[in-house]
C-alpha cells in the first residue's frame, strides 16, 4: 500500500449519529374474521433503501421493509417499517460511498426494523414473524449489475432524430 493510499484510508470516518423509526404502518383489513381461518400464511417481503445527503459527510439512510401476509385470498396483515439512521461518512470514494449507503448502513438498520416488525405482528394478534437475515452486499451488487446492464442496453440502441 502506498503512503498516499494509507493517508486516504486513515482520513476515513464512519459514525452513527442516530438510529430512529421514521414511519410505521400496520393494517389487519380482515380482522377479526382472519383469526378463525386456518393459519397457512403466504408471506411477501419487499425491501428498499434510500439515502439523502443532509450535509457534507452526513447521510440519512432509510431502510423500508414491507411484509404482506395472506391467508388464502385475504390479507391477514400488512406491516411496513421505515427505519432510518443518520451516519457520518467521510473520506470515501464515490464508489465506496455507494456501497456504504447501499449495503453497509442498511445492514446496521435491519436488526432494528426486524425487531419492530416482529413486535407489531405479535401485538396485532398473529404468530411471531421473524425475518431471516438479508445479505445486503449481494443485493447491492445485484443492483449495480442491473444498472450496468440497463446502461449498456441504452447505449446499444440507435438514437433517432427527427
Looking at this protein, list some descriptive labels.
globular, 162 residues, alpha+beta, Bacterial Protein-export protein SecB
Strand order in the sheet with the most strands: 1-4-3-2
Intertermini distance? 53 Å
Q: Give the helix/strand class.
A: alpha+beta
Strand content: 35-45%
Q: How many strand elements?
A: 4
Please outline what is shown here.
The chain is an alpha+beta fold. It has helices at residues 3-10, 94-123, 136-156; strands at 13-27, 41-55, 58-71, 74-90.
Descriptive notes:
The chain is 36% helix and 38% strand. With 162 residues, it is α+β, with helices and mostly antiparallel strands. Strand 3 and strand 4 (74-90) form a beta hairpin. Helix 2 packs across helix 3. It has a single domain, classed as SecB-like (Bacterial Protein-export protein SecB, Roll), CATH 3.10.420.10. The protein starts with a helix and ends in a 6-residue tail after the last helix. The model has no long low-confidence stretch (mean pLDDT 91). A four-stranded antiparallel sheet has the order 1-4-3-2. It is built from three helices and four strands; from the N terminus they run H-E-E-E-E-H-H.
Topology, element by element:
Blueprint: H1 3-10, E1 13-27, E2 41-55, E3 58-71, E4 74-90, H2 94-123, H3 136-156
Antiparallel strand pairs: 1-4, 2-3, 3-4
